[in-house]
């Protein structure tokens, strides 16, 4: 639902390499997929803020806690779950 709202607001896009600036996490999405996508977002120069739902952030807490540089900033937002 969070992604849908931002996509409807025009936030989502594909970069020159055709990589999206968002990830939709579903029930069957593995933790490894989430971690790899998050790490990929950390290395992209076109991303300055990463919004992540708290319940998803808890799944990859160890990766988020290792991120110490200010950009991209990681903002955990509440979810309806």
Automatic annotation (TrEMBL):
NCBIfam families according to UniProt: V_ATP_synt_F (TIGR01101)
Domain of life the protein comes from: Eukaryota
Keyword Transport: yes
InterPro entries, alphabetized: ATPase_V1-cplx_f_g_su (IPR008218), ATPase_V1-cplx_fsu_euk (IPR005772), ATPase_V1_fsu_sf (IPR036906)
Species the sequence originates in: Saccoglossus kowalevskii (Acorn worm)
Keywords: Hydrogen ion transport, Ion transport, Transport
Gene: LOC100378112
Classification via Pfam families: ATP-synt_F
Family: Belongs to the V-ATPase F subunit family.
Protein's name in the database: V-type proton ATPase subunit F-like
């Amino acid at each position: 639902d969070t992604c849908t709202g931002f996509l409807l607001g025009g936030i989502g896009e594909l970069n020159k390499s055709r990589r999206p600036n968002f990830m939709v996490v579903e029930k069957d999405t593995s933790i490894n997929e989430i971690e790899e996508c998050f790490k990929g977002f950390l290395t992209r120069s076109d991303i300055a803020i990463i919004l992540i739902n708290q319940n998803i952030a808890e799944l990859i807490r160890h990766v988020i806690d290792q991120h110490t540089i200010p950009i991209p900033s990681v903002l955990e937002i509440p979810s309806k779950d």
